[in-house]
Structure formats: C-alpha cells, structure tokens
Design brief:
Blueprint: H1 2-20, H2 26-33, H3 36-41, H4 43-49, H5 68-85, E1 91-97, E2 103-110, H6 111-114, H7 124-138, E3 143-150, H8 157-177, E4 185-190, H9 203-209, E5 211-218, H10 220-230
Parallel strand pairs: 3-4
Antiparallel strand pairs: 1-2, 2-5, 3-5
C-alpha cells in the first residue's frame, strides 16, 4: 500500500509539472527544478526541458542536492543567458536540465552555417555570430562550458569523430580568442553519429545532425554562491 501511495504522489507531481509548466514564470521553473520533487522525477523533467532527449550529461561535480531557492537563483541567471544567446544569428537556444537538476542552456550551431562541407575552418559569417556569442560567455564567467561536435552517419566512424573534434576545437578556440575564458571550457569533444537529433535517412535530417553544441551550466562556484545567497 505504501508503494502504491508513493506511486500516486509521484504521478500527481509529474502531472502538475507537465500541465502547469506554461503557467509558471521562468524563475519559478528554476525553483521547481531545484526541489526534491524535480530530482525524484528526473528523466521526466529532462524530457520536458531538453525537448530532443539527446542532450549531453553536463554539470559540475557537487557533493549534494541543491535547494529550491538556490535553484531559483541559478535558473534566473540561466534564463538571462539564454535570452542573450537567442539574439545571436544562427544560434538555436534551449533550456535543459543538468546532472544536478539545475537549469542549463544548450546552444546549437548548424555545421552548415559554421563550416564548408567536410571542413573545420570557420566561414566569415560564422565568425561574426560566434563573436557575438563569445560576448555572452564573457558576461557569464562563472558558468562552465562544454563544446561538443556531432555528425551524421555518412563515412567511417573514425573520420566522423575526427572532423567533429576538429570542429569543436575550432569553435572553442575562436570563442576564447573573442573573449570567452579558457578556464570556462571544461569539455571540448568530438562525438560520432550516436546522438542524432533527426533521421539520418534524409538529407535534411543529416544536415541537422551535423552540428556543434555549446552548453552553459552552473559551475561549483556558481552553485556555492547561490547556496550562500539562499541561506
């Protein structure tokens, strides 16, 4: 009976989150992610916040749970960063959940916008967009950054990983050259075609899968500062 009651509570909590999200303001969503209920439902919220379900597992290594108030503080900072990033031409911006249950920002750049086919040298237009995005990172130096390259399934696994890594490094290096902090860059990796966001069976789908993702998430210091502010 206790198990049944717990299941009912869990389902009701999930129902509240999925049906009530539109009525919550952005700061409130940050608070909700930081609560115990958010941690309990976990994957459900992950599917809601990261709509493609393919987001990387990012987040600082912390020793315990983050409280609701601290989660709200971080959520508000992430919302501001997301709004700033959304003004960058060619950037697709989403809010997702990191491994600590905190709001994070995922910014996706289509490789076709950044690079010529099978190349890792930035196009001129791409440099202009990345320069603006570097300003967003520079204005948020307390956030950690992960840069991940992805491919479609055309070609060998080794070749795909090589070009993905080269593109991720190119983007990371250019962002640093334009003002982002090298210390922020916690992860710069090239992935293969194991995390598609669209079907590799179509030309359009493969184009979407060739991408570079930049994640902005709360650093240990940012979390510690939020917890101190909340106490």
């Amino acid at each position: 009976m206790k198990k049944l009651n717990f299941l009912v509570v869990l389902l009701l909590s999930a129902s509240f989150i999925f049906t009530g999200c539109d009525s919550l303001n952005r700061t409130a969503k940050g608070a909700l992610i930081g609560t115990g209920a958010g941690a309990a439902i976990g994957a459900g919220i992950g599917g809601l916040i990261g709509k493609d379900g393919k987001s990387a597992a990012v987040g600082a290594a912390i020793g315990g749970a983050v409280g609701a108030t601290a989660g709200a503080i971080i959520g508000k900072q992430m919302d501001k960063a997301a709004e700033e990033a959304a003004r960058v031409e060619g950037a697709k911006v989403e809010t997702i959940e990191d491994i600590n249950g905190l709001k994070a920002v995922k910014v996706t750049f289509d490789s076709g916008i950044l690079f010529d086919f099978n190349k890792s040298d930035l196009k001129a237009d791409a440099k202009a967009s990345l320069s603006k995005f570097a300003n967003v990172l520079a204005e948020n130096p307390e956030m950690d950054i992960a840069v991940l390259g992805h491919t479609d399934n055309v070609g060998t696994l080794a070749a795909n990983k090589k070009v993905s890594l080269s593109r991720a490094k190119t983007v990371a290096n250019y962002l640093v050259a334009q003002g982002a902090s090298r210390v922020q860059m916690k992860t710069v990796e090239g992935r293969d075609y194991s995390m598609p966001v669209a079907s590799n069976e179509t030309v359009e789908g493969r184009a979407q899968n060739r991408r570079v993702e930049v994640y902005m998430y709360a650093s240990e210091k940012m979390i510690e500062d939020a917890q101190k502010q909340a106490s």
